[in-house]
Automatic annotation (TrEMBL):
Its EC number is 3.4.24.-. PANTHER family: MITOCHONDRIAL INNER MEMBRANE PROTEASE, MITOCHONDRIAL INNER MEMBRANE PROTEASE ATP23 HOMOLOG. The keyword Phosphoprotein does not apply. It is an enzyme of class 3 (hydrolase). This is Mitochondrial inner membrane protease ATP23. It comes from Hibiscus sabdariffa (roselle). Pfam families: Peptidase_M76. InterPro entries: Peptidase_M76_ATP23. Belongs to the peptidase M76 family. Keywords: Hydrolase, Metal-binding, Metalloprotease, Protease.
Length: 185
């Protein structure tokens, strides 16, 4: 019976997710991003990345002052948690390196979303295939654009039109900004 209820459950418990977060902290990409945040002068406390139960349909979020929240009820696999942690760490890194980043400014927010989508591996063709999206050419940029717009829908300061306009205005600069990586991983 317990096995059956686990199949129906959408994600994992906060405790299970917290364990997966601890495991993700040992992955090379997460370690790399955290080291570069420290080098940039941003201290990450022990509770910077935490598992929470989320009402919204999202994998996680980065909130200035609160750190990274991973939505346990939307996580099933270690890979899901790793992906969310990496994506949100890129937002945290962006805020760390840009003293004037304003999340209510559509261009600022869009730029960080472009970078997070491009650099985190969110749009790797295998992930896209599992989501039911597949094109031979141009799938990665199309995916980043789609996911930017999905993320921007939760920003009350940016209408869909403002988000699209901002994305077009900053696309080249932000897509090609691969810091702290030498090139897109």
């Amino acid at each position: 019976m317990e096995e059956e209820s686990n199949k129906k459950r959408k994600g994992c418990t906060v405790k299970e997710c917290q364990y997966m977060i601890q495991r993700s902290l040992r992955t090379p990409m997460v370690k790399f991003l955290m080291e570069h945040m420290e080098k940039a002068g941003c201290k990450l406390g022990d509770n910077f990345i935490k598992a929470v139960h989320c009402e919204q349909q999202m994998g996680g979020s980065y909130v200035r002052g609160d750190g990274i929240m991973v939505c346990s009820n939307h996580m099933k696999l270690q890979d899901d948690v790793n992906q969310v942690v990496i994506h949100e760490l890129i937002h945290a890194y962006d805020e760390c390196r840009a003293a004037n980043l304003d999340w209510s400014n559509c261009a600022h927010h869009v730029c960080s979303e472009i970078r997070a989508g491009h650099l985190s591996g969110d749009c790797h063709y295998k992930r896209e295939l599992l989501r039911g999206f597949m094109k031979i050419r141009g799938h990665e940029q199309e995916c980043v654009r789609r996911r930017v717009m999905k993320s921007m829908a939760s920003n009350p300061f940016c209408s869909e039109t403002a988000a699209k306009d901002a994305m077009e205005a900053v696309w080249d600069i932000c897509y090609n900004d691969t810091k702290p990586f030498d090139r897109a991983p």
